[in-house]
Write a structure and sequence with these properties.
The structure holds 2 protein chains of 2 kinds. Chain A is built from 10 helices and no strands. By secondary structure, chain A is mainly α. In chain A, helix 3 (53-84) runs parallel beside helix 6. By secondary structure, chain B is of the alpha/beta class. Chain B has helices spanning 42-50, 71-76, 93-103, 110-119, 135-147, 165-180, 192-198, 216-222, 249-253, 267-277, 291-301; strands at residues 4-13, 16-26, 31-35, 57-62, 65-66, 78-81, 153-157, 184-188, 201-206, 209-215, 226-234, 256-261, 280-288. In chain B, helix 3 (93-103) packs parallel to helix 5. Classes of the chains: A mainly alpha, B alpha/beta. The A-B interface holds A 1-3, 5-7, 9-10, 13-14, 17, 81, 84-86, 88-96, 246, 250-251 and B 13, 47, 50-54, 71-73, 75-76, 78, 80, 82, 84, 86-91, 99-100, 102-105, 107, 145-146.
Chain lengths: 251, 303
């Protein structure tokens, strides 16, 4: 195994050894969202013509799980090893900044997709799902998980304490996810908030992901894909630069 | 080519100058001691060599490879045992060592991992989780982790701090063997007798600077003569002997005194003066100067 493969494998093992907490728990949370919101809103809301609210909700919940878990994986791994000090075992090795970046983000993507698939498999029991454009599902799933895995990496590098990481998660990631149209279509918003939503990169991830299921979306999926890809490239550039400079890791 | 070449390295933390212009050359095959009081800059210097810290100025090379611009080569050649007792609670000892081998791109490293575990008395803990190990055992794993890739240069930052005699002996036996086989060893420790027994050359650091650099034997020769340690049952040290006391705090504590003697002939007059003053000797030893005396002299001389 190369150094990169080892770190990737270690990161996978790290979450897999505590899969109850890292995989099963988020799946349960997503199912609860579906049952409660689906039950309350099923008869009152129809976002796309001919698409039941529960069916509309499922891709959003799946994507939300993918994003949150990708973020949680890289960020918690980094902050834990920073605080316990065992990050030194990685920092002492010849692993390059690209290898560190690749291993942490790829493991985050895997966790995001594993949880997302789990959420989908369980929630799909409650609704009749269609797959209008399955490639878009995969593409947006991977891109979204990569973005959040990278954000987790940046947050993990930056944060020195758990509460700083929690702030990053609660004041940035959570609002951006909830306001991106997981539970609604942004077309139902007043024009001003529609414009604001279009500045939120999370909106394009979820909108494009949903297009894969219904073949309908607020924005052209190609346009969303471009927005998401550009955002990923910018974030990755920042993350690699931070790793290369040793920011907050090599003092 | 030097195993480790340090050129004019400086490093500050805000207003504190942790390393203040250190230059050192550690040759291949040496057993090199880096001594100094807490806060002298030993760990900072080691962290700079290991790439964990970045120097503000100056350069460090390991076998000619710069630790910043050519860090991959430099780190492959270096095995560092950090001072802090850190571990990854997710894994067993064997998993930890396999993982560490993997970071260096080593496949099928089990024969060497087994050998290292054997020499550090870790074999029967191979499948124990890291969390379940005692402090001493965790320290052994830290040493093993630094050795998985058979680094030609081994750096140990206070590896024996707070560990029992057994581990110290096991560890030094193994490290000495590696040194005889050609590995360069750099050691920091507060146990000066350890440094005296193991190191062929020593640098003493104080306030981020090298204040002494010489072979261990030459350093010990700097403190001439021996010491006469007397413990008095009654009476006190006569004034004319107070100049000979080598640890000033003993004058305050009373009863036990360490006196400098240059030759054996000096002993008799001292005893005579004590007898004349009416002091009664309870215990008496004649000691050869050791590294501790040198250390104290150099650190006090630099005040």
């Amino acid at each position: 195994m190369t150094g990169f493969q080892t770190l990737f494998y270690k990161e996978m093992l790290r979450f897999w050894k505590v899969a109850t907490q890292t995989v099963a728990a988020p799946i349960l949370t997503a199912v609860l969202y579906l049952l409660i919101f689906g039950h309350v809103l099923e008869d009152h809301v129809q976002v796309y013509p001919g698409v039941k609210y529960t069916v509309f909700l499922i891709p959003g919940l799946v994507m939300m799980s993918v994003l949150q878990n990708a973020f949680a994986n890289s960020s918690s791994s980094l902050i834990q090893s920073k605080i316990t000090g065992n990050l030194v075992f990685v920092l002492l090795t010849p692993l390059s900044h690209w290898e560190l970046f690749g291993a942490y983000v790829l493991a985050a993507v895997v966790r995001g997709l594993v949880v997302g698939s789990g959420v989908f498999l369980v929630t799909a029991w409650f609704a009749d799902m269609s797959f209008a454009a399955p490639w878009w599902i995969l593409i947006f799933g991977i891109l979204g998980a990569s973005i959040l895995g990278t954000m987790g990496l940046i947050a993990g590098i930056w944060a020195e304490k758990f509460d700083q990481l929690a702030a990053f998660q609660n004041f940035l990631i959570m609002p951006a996810t909830f306001l991106s149209g997981v539970f609604y279509s942004v077309h139902s918003l007043p024009p001003f908030w529609q414009t604001v939503s279009h500045l939120n990169p999370f909106f394009y991830m979820i909108d494009g992901f949903r297009y894969g299921f219904f073949g309908q979306s607020d924005v052209d999926p190609l346009h969303s894909c471009l927005a998401v890809a550009i955002f990923l490239i910018l974030l990755s550039g920042l993350a690699v630069q931070l790793l290369k400079s040793g920011y907050k890791l090599r003092h | 080519m030097a195993a480790i070449q340090i050129n004019n390295v400086e490093k500050s933390y805000r207003t504190l100058k942790a390393v203040n212009g250190i230059s050192l050359s550690i040759e291949e095959g040496e057993f090199f001691g880096l001594l100094g009081p807490n806060g002298a800059g030993k760990t900072t210097l080691i962290s700079i060599i290991a790439g964990l810290n970045r120097a503000d100025s100056g350069t460090v090379t390991v076998h000619g490879h710069d630790v910043v611009s050519d860090y991959r080569q430099a780190r492959k050649l270096l095995g560092v045992v950090p001072q802090e007792l850190v571990f990854d609670p997710f894994f067993t000892v064997r998993e930890t060592l396999r993982m560490q081998s993997g970071y260096y791109g080593l496949k099928n490293n089990d024969p060497w991992i087994d050998e290292v575990m054997h020499h550090l008395d870790l074999t029967n803990k191979a499948d124990a989780n890291m969390r379940a190990l005692s402090g001493g055992m965790k320290r052994r794993v830290l040493v093993a982790q630094a050795l998985v890739h058979k680094p030609p240069v081994i750096v140990l930052d206070e590896p024996t701090a707070g560990v029992d005699v057994e581990l110290r002996q096991t560890l030094w036996k193994f490290i000495s063997r590696l040194n005889r086989e050609g590995h360069t060893v750099v050691l920091t420790t507060h146990y000066l007798e350890e440094a005296q027994a193991l190191c062929n050359r020593i640098a003493m650091l104080k306030a981020g600077q090298v204040v002494a650099l010489d072979s261990t034997s030459a350093l010990i020769k700097r403190v001439s003569g021996s010491q006469l340690v007397v413990q008095l049952a009654s009476g006190s040290l006569p004034d004319e002997l107070k100049d000979l006391v080598s640890h000033p705090e003993e004058l305050v504590l009373g009863s036990k005194y360490t006196l400098r003697v240059n030759e054996y002939q000096d002993v008799e007059p001292i005893l005579a003066k004590l007898r004349l003053s009416g002091a009664v000797i309870e215990d008496m030893q004649l000691q050869q100067a050791d590294l501790e005396d040198v250390f104290i002299q150099i650190m006090e001389g630099e005040k």
